[in-house]
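Quick illustration, no need to memorize.
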Amino acid sequence: MCIRKTEVLVFGAAFLQAFVAPLFGDEALDHHAVAFFEKSIRPVLIEHCYECHSNSAKEIGGGLRLDSRTSIRLGGDSGQVIVAGNPNESLLVAALRHEDLQMPPDGKLPAHVIADFIRWIEIGAPDPRDGDRHSEKSGFDIEAARDFWAFRPLSGAKGSIDHFVAGKLTGMSLKANPLADKYTLLRRLFFDLTGLPPEPEEVNAFVRDESSDAYERMVDRLLASPRFGERWGRHWLDLCQYADSLDAERIFPNRGAWRYRDYVIRAMNQDKPFDQFVVEQIAGDLLPHRNDAERAEHIVATQFIAMGPMNLVNQFKTQLRMDIVDNQVEKVGRVFLGLSVGCARCHDHKFDPLKQEDYYALAGILQNVQVLNGFRGVSGVFSDWMRQPIPELPEERIDREQRTLLHQQRAEQLESELAAKKTEIAQLETEKETGAPGKDSLQKDEKIEKLKDEASKLEKGLRDHVKANKPQSPTVLAAFEPVRPTNARINIRGNALNLGEEVPRGIPRVLKAVREIPETASGRMELAESLVHRENPIVSRVFVNRVWHHLFGTGIVRTVDNFGTRGEEPSHPELLEALAQRFITNGWQVKTLIRGIVLSRTYRLSSSHDPLAWSVDPGNRLLWRHSPRRLDAESIRDSLLKISGSLSSLAGGPTLPPAEWNTEEVAQFDQISSPKSGRFDVLQGRSIFLPVSRAALRFDAGDPLRQFDFPSPNDIAGARQSSTVPTQSLYLMNSPFVSTRAKKFADRLLARKLASEGEQVNSIYLSAYGRPVRPAEIREGLEFLNLASAVPASGDDKNTTEEPRQTALARLCHAVLISTEFLMHD
């Protein structure tokens, strides 16, 4: 039964098969793998290895060629050089480390390059260089390239969602599942639109409502809820590499990042047209504004292109700058176009219609976004970053002035305490010098040492308080460009110091530019306007597909970040065309798009298993049912907090803790030791408001986000990984975070003063599963309470003052909260 902990140790072989797939396979390389190879591996091989280990070499060293997938896997005279998945057994890694053979012979490669090769081999050594029909092309016909389905003008397909889905099913002699019951449908709708479960009272009210528009009214209510923006804002933050820190290795706080997060949430709640949303994020600082609030919002929005992983300690600053530009190019390409534009940094794209000149035309636009700003500290090693001032709103100024007053009072208090300590130390030292030695002298020594230690702590506290916490006028790391924009030059083999021809600023030629870029402009506005122009419908297709992915678990185009030739074609092409066209026609309104999808019969289908349909379409690409899937990390955590009554009402604002200062000479700048330390309301708030560190996912080990595939903020994650491993169930069984929520859940049930224990069990099921308890489950629940009440207290329960029945109820709540049904979206 669902309340037995042993049944959630694993989710079963079928569940595992449904959620876990091989990371990279030779037959169908993941586009993330291809991008990594093209960006981090191929350029190094070309620059450092091809001279001796390629088909064009005068003499192939050691019989080893590294210029194709086949040859690198065959190895050379010394045998295989890579063992996919095992870098420690790979001779190539040993040679790069200069452990035996020393490659390249003229000097060891930098540590981060060797780390890239190790990672490459760990993920299976994906290599797209063999067997591709595009690999030898030297150019492409623009008009022919634009005839690819992703770039074509919208076809004007018309029809409802259900019409297109039914047509595909009929063609395969299949029938769609019946509609889901009202309990299942309400839970699905709540999680999809708000990321939170419904309360028992909401469940009962919806089920009792027999009116024909009950479901439609519930959809409208949830779309209007502030929780909608928090849910769908998180989807967008997955794409834009959001984090509250900057460097990929150290925790340098990006203290204005929260403003972008709140901007995204606000845009979703206000249903800002998506075309406007895109333009603001690329060129908001260049837009006209009606007041200071709008000006601030426009600047904050451009954090989209300024935000991303940076290796601030990289001593090669020219290369660092171009690496940042590369991330910006890749982000614009992947997020809006669904194309791995970054693969064209070192050479023409091997698969998609993107030449190297297209890459540097786009890089020329984005390199004018200034991100770095000199150095931090005195060593001249760590790069500093731009802080773009934004207008301070009246309420912000009042708040800052109040905090400044409190800050000054605290500083004066610390200074007074420090002065008193120093005076007392001086008096004791004077008495010691003038007095006779003896017992009294020893006591004075001990007291002086104690006072000096206290004074040292006060000095540190004063330094930390004054430097790290002094209220400042608002600034953000956002778009800022010079008066005279410049073009980019081709970086030969991706090396920023090995420059080729200059390339005029522009957008990839496979797209249609709205207008020419003036010599005096960077081109960001022209880029933004071109992306959302009707002549480039790929942007609408990509976004509509992302929305479908979040509502169904799989996109119409399953490779949501790859609409290129290596991506999958749409399962329902006409449906995708109709949705993309309707999205534009309806004014790019995201809520209208979502509303239309969730009101469809296709969305409301049951997820029950049909053996015949499964035998024909096990992947549910024909949409004969609503695919079951696990809740994501945030929904698990937020649900535990809400069900237990612990979820705070926090709704935005700064979430980083105060900085802790490093006083070493080489690093006179603010760093935070852990982004997890912070205000109680932040740590008890929704997951979207938790501080995220770029250096590592430093969520507490007891936090579900760490266990359930929260994405790295350094990646662009259109589709999250969904792993299923035994440690997740072990975590749920043993985590203090989960057990504490279970106890609070039980306390909340007892506070309701329900008439019977049977009603308590029913309330548990309504809260956790969104459905009433079944008769057999009531019997099992009561039996569990009786047995658990009779078991002697052990472990943490020994120290509790709770009654045995109360402890048993908490155990029952815990068992339900770690069950498979609770973790499932449907």
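Residues 394-434 form the longest helix (41 residues).
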